[in-house]
Amino acid sequence: MADLSPTAQALERRRRRVRPTVTQLAWLRRGLDQAGGKLPLFDHYGQRYDSRTIRSCIEQGWAEPWFDNPTKPDWLVCKLTESGRKAAGSGDAAGDAAARDLVEDLFC
């Protein structure tokens, strides 16, 4: 990181501190129990997850496209990355536990 400009270093530090929103966390947590970390297309109420949520998780490196859906090409079928697993399930801070409890209360 020493060979990066000060601006690039600041952006890199900021990017590393980003945490998922409640909606992103709910989506990512649903992939923890699925084979291969497959992430759902629909929430517990049968509503499609917002594509902005999915794309934001991909941009942060928490999810990655898995395969193209030939019947619904506009649907992003994704799976968790290792950093996505960490963001969704790790952390021992009280804030992380409170966020997980909130996600479970709202979305499970």
Describe it for me?
- With 108 residues, the protein is mainly α.
- Helix content is 48%, strand content 10%.
- The protein contains five helices and two strands; from the N terminus they run αααββαα.
- The chain has helices at residues 6-16, 22-30, 51-60, 82-89, 94-107; strands at 63-68, 76-80.
- It has a two-stranded antiparallel ribbon.
- A hairpin with a 7-residue loop joins β1 and β2 (76-80).
- The longest helix has 14 residues, at 94-107.
- 21% of the residues are buried.
- The model has no long low-confidence stretch (mean pLDDT 81).
Mean pLDDT: 81
Strand portion: 5-15%
In DSSP terms (H or I, runs of 4 or more residues), the helix count works out at: 5
Low-confidence stretches: none
Rounded to an integer in angstroms, the radius of gyration calculated over CA atoms is 15 Å
Separation, N- and C-terminal Cα atoms: 40 Å
Number of strands: 2
Q: List SSEs in N-to-C order.
A: HHHEEHH
Shape: globular
Residues in helices, as a percent range: 40-55%
* Structural class designation: mainly alpha
The profile of the biggest β sheet is: 2 strands, antiparallel
Spatial order of strands in the largest sheet: 1-2
Which labels suit this protein?
single chain, mainly alpha, globular, two-stranded antiparallel sheet, 108 residues
SSE blueprint and pairings:
Elements: H1 6-16, H2 22-30, H3 51-60, E1 63-68, E2 76-80, H4 82-89, H5 94-107
Helix pairs in contact: 2-3, 2-4, 2-5
